[in-house]
Write a structure and sequence with these properties.
Blueprint (H helix, E strand, L loop, with lengths): L3 H5 L4 E5 L6 H17 L4 E5 L29 E5 L11 H6 L2 E6 L10 E4 L6 H8 L7 H14 L10 H11 L5 H10 L3 H12 L2 E3 L4 E6 L1 H7 L9 H6 L6 E9 L2 E8 L5 H7 L3 E2 L3 E7 L2 H18 L1
Parallel strand pairs: 1-2, 1-3, 3-4, 4-5, 7-8
Antiparallel strand pairs: 6-7, 8-9, 9-11, 10-11
Helix pairs in contact: 2-5, 4-5, 5-6, 5-7
Bound molecules: guanosine-5'-monophosphate and manganese (II) ion (MN).
C-alpha cells in the first residue's frame, strides 16, 4: 500500500486538490488529508486548493486555509496530491499544479478512473475517497479535527451509509471515526439534510417540471439559465435534486441537468442499480460511479435526454 508519510518525507511543498464543484467527499478528503499532514509535518508548506466549499462545510476546522484563487506564476510543488478525481482535467484551475509537480499522488474511488499519477491508491469498490484516506493514515496520529471531515466525506458519498458502496470496512472506519466524539448527528443534519429556502424552491420546481419516459423507468428535469438568473441560483442550489428524482417509484434512472452556458448542460445521473450510469457518463467524456455519474454536454434539454435515453435503453434491453 502507498506509504503517504514516507513519500512526503522529503517534500517541502505539498498541494492537495480535488475535483471542480467539490462535494462532501472531495472537501472532506482534502481537509482530512490537509489537517493530518499539517499535524505530522508542521514545518512543510501544505496548501489545500479547491473551489470554495458551500457554507455548511464551515464546521470543518481549517476550512479557511483553502486556496481558491491561484496567483499567476505557477510554483512547482514537490508533491501534488489529487483526491476524488477520475482524471487530471477534473482538478480545474489546480490542474496546472498537477502538471508541474515533481511527484504526483492520486487517491480515488471512481470506477471510471483508469489510473494516472506517479503514485496511486485507487479502489473503485471503496465507498469514498475519505475511506481510502483512513486506510492510508497512521491512525495513532489522528485526532478529532482530522476525523470529522473524513466522517463527513464518507457520510455524503454513501447517502448516510445507505448506498451499496458501503462495506463492513466502511462501517468499521466510521466506527473508528465517531469514536473521536464529535456531534455526528448534528453534522449529518447540517451538512447533508438541511436545505436553504432557495434549494427547496429549486427542488420543487425541478420535481414539478420533470418528465418521465420509458414506462416511467426514467425521469428527467432541468433548470435553465434564465431560471437560474431569476432566482440568483448557482450549482449549490441544485444539491440533492437528482437524488430526490430517483426516489420516484418505478424509476431506474434519474437525470437532472442545469445550463452552464447557453445550450450547454451539466448533467447528473443516478441509477437504482440496473443501469451502470458511469458507462454512459464516460461515453460523453464524463465519469463517476455505477450509480452516480455526470458529464457536460452541448444541446437542448431534449437533445441530451434523447441521447442518454438511447444509452439507457441499450443497457435495460441487455438486462
Ligand atoms: P454529480 O452528479 O453529483 O455532479 O456527480 C456524481 C459523480 O460523478 C461524482 O462522483 C462526480 O465526481 C462524477 N462526475 C460528475 N460530473 C463529472 C464529469 O463531468 N466528469 C467526470 N469525470 N466525473 C464527473
Ligand atoms: Mn467521492
Amino acid at each position: 500500500m502507498l506509504d503517504l508519510l514516507k513519500e512526503l518525507k522529503d517534500c517541502d511543498t505539498v498541494a492537495i486538490s480535488g475535483h471542480v464543484r467539490p462535494d462532501g467527499d472531495c472537501i472532506g478528503s482534502v481537509m482530512g488529508t490537509y489537517l493530518y499532514l499539517r499535524k505530522v509535518f508542521p514545518e512543510k508548506t501544505i496548501i489545500p486548493m479547491i473551489e470554495k466549499p458551500a457554507p455548511e462545510f464551515s464546521v470543518i476546522s481549517g476550512i479557511d486555509d483553502i486556496v481558491t484563487d491561484f496567483q499567476p506564476g505557477v510554483p512547482r510543488f514537490d508533491a501534488f496530491i489529487g483526491l476524488d478525481s477520475s482524471s487530471p482535467d477534473r482538478y480545474g484551475d489546480a490542474g496546472i499544479y498537477f502538471e508541474t509537480a515533481k511527484k504526483t499522488i492520486v487517491i480515488d474511488h471512481h470506477i471510471s478512473n483508469e489510473g494516472f499519477g506517479d503514485l496511486r491508491y485507487i479502489d473503485g469498490e471503496a465507498s469514498s475517497t475519505c475511506e481510502l484516506i483512513c486506510d492510508l493514515m497512521d491512525r495513532s496520529l489522528a485526532d478529532k479535527e482530522i476525523a470529522m471531515p473524513l466522517y463527513i466525506g464518507i457520510i455524503h458519498d454513501t447517502g448516510v451509509l445507505q448506498y451499496s458502496n458501503v462495506s463492513p470496512k466502511t462501517l468499521n472506519t466510521v466506527a473508528w471515526l465517531i469514536g473521536y466524539g464529535f456531534d455526528f448527528s448534528k453534522i449529518i443534519e447540517e451538512t447533508f439534510y438541511e436545505r436553504t429556502r432557495l434549494q427547496n424552491e429549486m427542488l420543487g420546481r425541478a420535481l414539478i417540471e420533470s418528465i418521465t419516459f420509458m414506462d416511467g423507468k426514467c425521469i428527467a428535469s432541468k433548470i435553465d439559465k434564465k431560471t437560474m438568473e431569476f432566482y440568483g441560483a448557482d450549482s449549490h442550489a441544485f444539491e440533492g435534486i437528482v437524488n430526490q428524482l430517483r426516489f420516484t417509484k418505478g424509476v431506474e434512472v434519474a437525470i437532472f441537468m442545469y445550463e452552464v452556458e447557453s445550450m450547454e448542460y451539466k448533467v447528473s445521473l443516478r441509477s437504482r442499480g440496473l443501469v451502470d450510469v458511469a458507462k454512459i457518463a464516460k461515453f460523453y467524456d464524463g465519469g463517476g460511479h455505477a450509480r452516480a455519474a455526470g458529464f457536460t454536454m452541448k444541446g437542448t434539454f431534449y437533445d441530451i435526454v434523447n441521447n442518454i435515453s438511447d444509452s439507457i435503453a441499450i443497457q435495460l434491453d441487455e438486462e
